[in-house]
Structures are given as C-alpha cells and as structure tokens.
Design brief:
CATH architecture of the largest domain: Sandwich
CATH topology of the largest domain: Jelly Rolls
Helix content: 10-25%
Number of strands: 12
Number of helices: 3
Number of domains: 2
Largest sheet: 5 strands, antiparallel
Shape: rod-shaped
Length: 233
C-alpha cells in the first residue's frame, strides 16, 4: 500500500484503503493502518474461561427463548382475535327455518297444532304463517289463531297435535276468520323467546279433516340481542 499512487488508484482500491482499521497515538494524530493481527489478536477465544463460554451460551439460549416466547404470544393473540371474530359472526348470523304440524280435527273441542319452541339461547322472529287444510286448494271450515305462550294447552309440550283449550287473548299473536290463510309479518312483530312455544288453534273445524299449519322464522342468538328477551303479549 505504501507504493500505491492514489492518483492512479481505482475507486475499489481507494475504498479498501479507507476502510482499513487505523490506530491513533500521541505521536501520530493522523493515525496509521493496522494489520489484521493487531485488529483481531490471535488467541482471543482461547482467553475465555469455561465459565465465560457457558455464560455466553446461556445468554444465547435466553435470547432465543425470549424470541420464541414473544412469537408464541403473538400467535396466541392472533388466534384469540380470530376466535372472537368467529364468535361474533356465529352470534350475529341469522338462520331461517320453517316449522309445521298437521293433525285431524277431533270429534269435539278445538284442535291445537304445536309448532315448536326456540332452542335455549335463541329467539325466533316469525316472518310468516299459513293455516288451512292439507293444501291451498282444499276447502277447510273454521277459523284459527296463532299463539305464543309458555305452555301449549293440554299438549304436555308434545310435538304431536292434541285437543284442548284455546291459548287465550293473553297469548294470541294473530287470527284469521277464514281458512286457508297465509300472512306475513314485519320486523319484531311476532317474537318467540327460548322459554315460549308457538302453536295454532283451529276452531269450528270439520271432524276428521286434516288441518295443517306452518311458520317461517328467523333464528337469532340471544347474545346478538345483548341478552335481552322480548315479550310479546
């Protein structure tokens, strides 16, 4: 390097010269180039005691453990966030369904057609109801009422249709004076809580004739409604 003419040196040679370590002392304030032996003395690693090496290894392992722990924490938080999003979607997702029942009209009394009850933790929003004979082209005498109440009259909470008393004005949600009949409902017009039943009562029907009823409903998770039940009188 001593005989290198910087005027004719390439950029690479000049950079290599500038990047060499330099030593400064009281006799040479501008510094001088040092050799690799001076910059990295031999036997440096050999000067470490076994305890120093063990301490260094432990520090490395601790750093790796800390990094792995931080990564695991980030992953756990991400999984928990995804679960919260999934749970919110589950609670907020509305499921539509239909529920129906049919039975012959009894020789006396009225005909009760139970249409079901929401599962625990859910609500039904009834969107429509159809009542009549076995089809829309079948003549059916009588009138009918749609009821929402805690107990199906004399049905023992059975899914099978039974004879019994009416649900009463305190439980009625809708009525029709002629059959067959189909009706649709607006938002929150007819709600059914998880401790209530929906049922239809046929009055003045023809003995032995088969009557049928069905409802279409949207099923909501109560958590999506902030845990508030809605009572329909």
């Amino acid at each position: 390097m001593a005989g290198l003419d910087l005027r004719n040196a390439s950029p690479e040679q000049t950079m290599a010269l500038d990047e060499r370590p330099r030593v400064y002392d009281q006799h040479n304030l501008e510094g001088r180039d040092v050799s690799a032996t001076e910059a990295f003395p031999s036997g440096f690693d050999d000067a470490l005691t076994p305890l120093d090496k063990l301490h260094s290894s432990i520090q490395g392992l601790l750093q790796v453990s800390i990094h792995l722990g931080q990564t695991a924490d980030k992953l756990s938080r991400a999984v928990a966030q995804q679960k919260r999003i999934w749970d919110q979607l589950q609670r907020g997702t509305v499921v539509d369904g239909g529920f129906g029942a049919a039975a012959p009209y009894p020789a006396s009394g009225v005909l009760v057609l139970p249409l079901g009850s929401p599962d625990r933790g859910t609500q039904w929003e009834i969107m429509g109801c159809s009542i009549g004979g076995t089809d829309i082209n079948v003549a059916a005498a009588g009138s009918a009422g749609l009821y929402v109440g805690g107990v199906v009259p004399q049905s023992g909470l059975s899914a099978a249709a039974t004879t019994g008393a009416s649900g009463g004005i305190t439980n009625i949600a809708d009525r029709t004076a002629a059959l067959p009949n189909s009706t649709t409902y607006g938002t929150h017009q007819v709600m059914v809580n998880d401790n209530e039943w929906v049922f239809v009562v046929i009055f003045n029907g023809t003995s032995g004739q088969v009557y049928a009823a069905n409802i279409s409903a949207s099923v909501y998770n109560i958590a999506a409604n902030r845990g508030e039940d809605i009572q329909v009188l």
